[in-house]
Amino acid sequence: MLPRAFALVVLTACTSAQAPSGPPKKEAVAPPASAAAPVPPAPAPLVADGGAADAEAPSADASPTAELSDAGSDAAQVAAPYVADNKVLPPESSEELQKRAAALFDAIVNDDPARGESFWFPKEPFVSLKDVKGPDKYWDQLHRTYARDIHALHKKRKSWEGATFEGFELGSKPKWVPPGDEGNKIGYYRTFRGKLRYRIGEKTESIEVRVIISWQGRWFITHLSKFKK
Question: Which domain of life is it from (predicted)?
Answer without folding.
Answer: Bacteria
